[in-house]
Amino acid sequence: MAISNQNTQVALELGRIRPLDEEAMQLTDVRLANLTKPPGSLGKLEDIARQLAGITGEVDADLSRKAIVVMAADHGVCEEGISAFPADVTPQMVMNFLSGGAAVNVLARQAGADVVCVDIGVNAELEHPQLYARKLMHGTNNMAKGRAMEHETAVQALLTGIEVTDKLWEQGYRLFATGEMGIGNTTASAAVMSVLTGCSPEDAAGRGTGIDDARLAHKVDVIRRSIAVNEPNAADPLDVLSKVGGLEIAGLAGIILGAAARRCPVVIDGFISSAAALIAARMMPDAVHYMIGSHLSNEQAHKKLLDAIGLSPVIHLDMRLGEGTGAALCFHLIEAAQRLLKEMATFDSAGVSRG
């Protein structure tokens, strides 16, 4: 596919993303005001209910079909020794997801959600009947030595995420969440954050898989070198993505934009997913209104990253696993917001006096 055709496809997809439905949100406000409670007393649950109405255009949308899309890819920057785990863990964990044994599988089952695993760039040949095989590269190049991928590959990864969202939408899924797997991806995410927000590599980098102080200092240096070598343009999110990003980050940005284009809510997981969300937000600011920040990761820069996007996390459990685990837990709160709106009595129906 020619790069001009790719850019046209991206532009068409961005053009489908619209502001929230104000009428549906106003109807939800009226409903919330008539429920048997003090105004605003359910806090963020009321915010979620109102946002869901604005996203879907319905006060009581059916969001029962839920998918956590786990994008998996490897990173050439692992050659620099920036992770506590070897790159071999990426394909091993993909098979764990597909067999249902990972943490995200457990939490997804509890939430009544499906885990959809996409191989967009794993450095291994994987086969499984439930795997979405969309491999574009066998992992990115080492960004400390040159660009992580070609510009057209980054665009194709973005379009792959959109294509997966469209396929799932056609199957009836209406609530999406982002998940990921890729040893080395906190390094790429920190580099993306550093460029797009202007913060230093020291402020963007965290411990990822649990590295010690010495390796953290080395990780910061690798991020700094990667930015210096590639000189990504902070005004061009796709340039940043192609030079210091990752295939799964690009794919997740596509999932987010695809969900927004389909007027579906998308729950953002942790640090890596938030880096993808920042890419999507810089490409189309209206896409932020379709995002729900699930939790505050223990990665030190996650709060600053969420602030840069404009998201407020619902949960804070000191988690830093990724995979979509925080997003899976947030599904319960989304359902709670919907059930409260639908099932609570009003002052009139319950015969309760208003304040």
Offer a concise description of the structure.
The chain is α/β, with parallel strands linked by helices and 355 residues long. 51% of the residues lie in helices and 9% in strands. It starts with a helix and ends in a 5-residue tail after the last helix.
Describe the fold and architecture.
The chain has 355 residues and is α/β, with parallel strands linked by helices. The protein folds into two domains: 3-60 and 340-350, Orthogonal Bundle (5,6-Dimethylbenzimidazole Phosphoribosyltransferase, Chain: A, domain 1); 66-332, Rossmann fold (3-Layer(aba) Sandwich), CATH 3.40.50. The protein is 51% helix and 9% strand. It contains 15 helices and six strands. Strands 3-2-1-4-5-6 form a six-stranded parallel beta sheet, sandwiched between helices. Helix 12 links the parallel strand 5 and strand 6 (291-293). Helix 2 runs antiparallel to helix 3 and helix 12 (271-283) runs parallel beside helix 13. The termini are far apart. The mean pLDDT is 96.
